[in-house]
Amino acid sequence: MRRRRFVFVIFCLVFLITMGGGYFIFYFEKIPNILQHTNSEKIELKQNMQEEVKIYDEKIANLEDKNKLIIMNSHELYLLNQDNILLYFGRNDCSVCQGFLQTLTPILEHTDRKIYYFDTNDKDNLHYEELINEYGITQVPTLVRLNHSEGKKIVFNPEKDGLASFIKKGV
């Protein structure tokens, strides 16, 4: 009787180990497929981002062609001392900047204002850090209205101002 119980317990243990092992083999066999699926999703996301960057760059170039936007490097921006100007700090790989530019474009096309654009991905320029600190740029997109002679700097706040009215206002 004891021997029979012992054989039964051993049989149950062997059965559980075999079934458990089979489950783990089956599970771990599926992992490469899961990882492959994740990698294909990553590739698709990367391709989508590259397409969004391309569209953003085309919109910037289009606004520049229409003389609505002036692309500045940090040295040019550092030397800029005009009054009542708008500075747009953004970058092409920022999804919020892409959305902001989509809103900004029709407004610029229906006004006589120009915007000076600074690409924050352009970190190799001479005065990059000074400009970022001077204008308090902590995030992008940031739109700033400047009046150098009065020392005024007003940062666009979407909760306070509408974009069109901010652009049309003088300092």
TrEMBL record:
- Pfam families per the UniProt record, alphabetical: DUF6568 (PF20207)
Q: What is this protein called?
A: Thiol reductase thioredoxin
Entry-linked CDD domains: TRX_family
> Which classification does the entry list for the species?
Bacteria, Bacillati, Bacillota, Bacilli, Lactobacillales
Q: Which residues cross the membrane?
A: 7-28
SUPFAM superfamilies the record matches: Thioredoxin-like
Where does this protein have coiled-coil stretches?
none
InterPro entries attached here? PedC-like, Thioredoxin-like_sf
User: What keywords tag this UniProt record?
Assistant: Membrane, Transmembrane, Transmembrane helix
